[in-house]
Structures are given as structure tokens and as C-alpha cells.
Structures
1.
Amino acid sequence: QVQFVESGGDLVQPGGSLTLSCVVSGYIFSAFGMTWYRQVPGKERELVASIDSTGYRKDYADSVKGRFTISRNNRMSTVTLQMNSLKPEDAAVYFCNRQPASSTWGQGTQVTVSS
């Protein structure tokens, strides 16, 4: 069964950095693109960054361009989100999912940006 396990969230000061990881199981990882989303209470889930199955094509939300980098390791079935120059508005629960999204979601990982 499809499973996404996110980790790496933490409390960080504005301007700081974090690396989020997502371990995937239950399907052929290398056959699907992957997406990182984030959600804050009371708001819809927001697409942050996506990467195609090969790792060559990457797309980012305007709000994170130049600060976040998505990557993947098809051997390890993992997708990573490197986040730099974090802002308070980046605080959210971050989730990963495949493209197109599975109905199964992980528990997410909490990112808090505060001084």
C-alpha cells in the first residue's frame, strides 16, 4: 500500500534553513513525479514544489522560488525539500505526494519559523 513518511520539520529562526525528507513505499517510485505541499490551519493545501520522475524538471510556487530546492533519489525512493532563507509565512505542515496525487497522505512534518 502507498505510504508517505515526511520528516525534518523543526522550529527555525527567520532566515534559517531546513531540509525535509519524504520516504515513499508501496509503488514504483521512479515512475511518478513528486510534489511537496504545505498547509496551515484553516487554509487549503498549497503546492510548493514538484519534480518529474527523472528529476530533471522542477517547478516551484512563486513564493518559494530561489529559496527552496526539490530533489529526489530514485534508488532510495526519497524526495527532499531544501528550504533556505525561511520566512514566517513558510510555517506550515509540509506533505509529499506523487503526481497525480494519491488519496493516501502522510502525517506531514511541522515547520515553524519564529524568532
2.
Amino acid sequence: QLQASGGGLVQAGGSLRVSCAASGSIVSIGGMGWYRQVPGKQRELVAGITQTFRTSYADSVKGRFTISRDSAKNTVYLKMNSLKPEDTAVYYCYANVVRMGTYWGQGTLVTVSS
């Protein structure tokens, strides 16, 4: 399973880091990353990181968000800087677990006040 943490309330321009740890009988994890969703809108891919640490970002967060992972801890992080009110959403992590499929975290709410 995946356990996300670190969401909360922050003022515009502030920073926040969310984390997501995978646990259980995991042999290996391929890609990991984060989506976000605002009520009434489709889930949006925010950032992804491969097993070889190649990263990708949505245009809306490039230069402000940084994704990283600790493979030994099966954990993915998303550091969010220069937050904007439009970044407010529930952030969901995912992990592509080898031979087991894609797993999702429970979501963590990030609220950016103006």
C-alpha cells in the first residue's frame, strides 16, 4: 500500500513537501509520481520519476516543483515551491510495482491561500 503525508495549508508563495511511502511485499518499483485533482475536474499528472531517476513535470509546475525518490525506502517526494492558489488540490501518489501493478495513495490535501 501507499501512504501519503505532508499536505496542509500554506500561503501563496510558500513551500510544502509531500511524501508517499510504499509498504508491503515489494520486489521492485518502476515509475512513481504524483497526480492532483480538483473537485469537478479531471485528475492531472503533476510529476513523475522513473526507476532511473528521470523526471517529468506538467508545464504548470515546471521550475517550481521537484520530484525525488528514495529507492531504499520505496518513497517518493514532491517539493513544491512558489505555491499558487491554483495548486490547491488533493494530491495522489502512485507507484508502478513490478509484477503487481499500479498502486495509489489515499490522497493528501494541499490548500494554498491567496
3.
Amino acid sequence: QVHLGESGGGLVQVGGSLRLSCKASGLKFNLYDMQWYRQAPGKERDLVARISSNNADTNYGESVKGRFTISRDNVRRTVYLQMNNLKPEDTAVYYCNTVARGREFWGKGTLVTVAS
């Protein structure tokens, strides 16, 4: 059974940093691209960042380019999201995501709150 478990969220001041982690189990982690999404209150879930299975390619949403960095450790089966220079509009629940074996899997999310 595939399980994605996020951690690292919390309350941070404007301009601060957080590092999110997502530990995966139940799948051959190094075969699959991984994504971070976020959903702010009253808004749709949006793609934040994506990383390819072999760490070679990354993509970012326009609003986080230059501030967020996605990375992964295939030995630890973990994907990370380093978030710097946080803004109030980054406040959201952040979700880990992958598509494996033709199915989409989500974690339960971790809340990031940026206080101004």
C-alpha cells in the first residue's frame, strides 16, 4: 500500500524559511516523479514543484520560482521542499503527490502559515 507522509509545516514569519519533507513507502520510489501541491483556504489545489524520478529535471510554479527548491533522496525515499523568503500568500496546506502504477496518490498534507 502506497503511503506519503508530509512533515515540516508550521508557523513562520514573513521572509522566513521552512523545509518540508515527504516520506514515501509502498512503491519503488526511484521510478516515479514526485510533486508538491498546495491549497490555500477557498482556493483550488495548485502545483508548486515537480521533480523527475532521477533528480534530473525540476519544474516550479511561477509564484515560487527563485524562492522554493524541490529535491529528493532516493535512498531515503524522501522528497523535500525548501521554502525561502516566505510570503503571506504562501499560507496553505502542502501536499505530496505522485502517480504510480496508473493511480494518483496524495499525502494528508502539512499546514504552512506565514504570519505578516
4.
Amino acid sequence: QLQASGGGLVQPGESLSLSCAVSGFTSANYWIYWIRQAPGKGPEWVSTMNPTGGSTYYGDSVKGRFTISKDNAKNTLYLIMNNLKPEDTAIYYCTAGGHWGQGTLVTVSS
């Protein structure tokens, strides 16, 4: 299973770091994804990393501001979010190997 954490309320321009602790399987063997869903909207793909960690991909709305990473030793995934905007407000989900975390809420508001 995956357990996401790190969400909260921040002001525009601030940063947050999301974590996703993986248990029951080794995330190093899988593509990892962060997906978000804003209130009243459908899911939006945010970022992806390949199993080796050598390739990362980002949605246009977060490119240059968000960074995906992982620590294989800790079996933990991360999403570093900088220069947050109100439109980044959403529940953020991590997923790997067909497993989904429960999501963590990020609210960006002044």
C-alpha cells in the first residue's frame, strides 16, 4: 500500500513537499506517478518517473515548479512543489504498481 502525507494549507508562492511511503512491494521496480484532483474536477496527471529514476515527466501546468523523486532505500516517493499557485489546490495521489495511496490535500490560498 501507499501512504501519502505532507499536504496542508500554504500561501501562493510557497513550497510543500509530499511524501508517499510504500509498503508491501518495492517501488523501485515500477513506474511511479503523482495524480491530482481539484475540487469539482477530474483527475489530472502531474508527474511520472521511470523505474530507474533516470527519466521524469511533468504536466505542462507544473513543469519547472514540481520535482518528482524517490528514495529506494526508504521505499518512499516524493513530490517537491515550489511556487505554488491557487490552481494547484487539489488532493494529490501517489500510485505505483497498480496501487494507490489515499491522497493528501494541498490547499493554496491567501
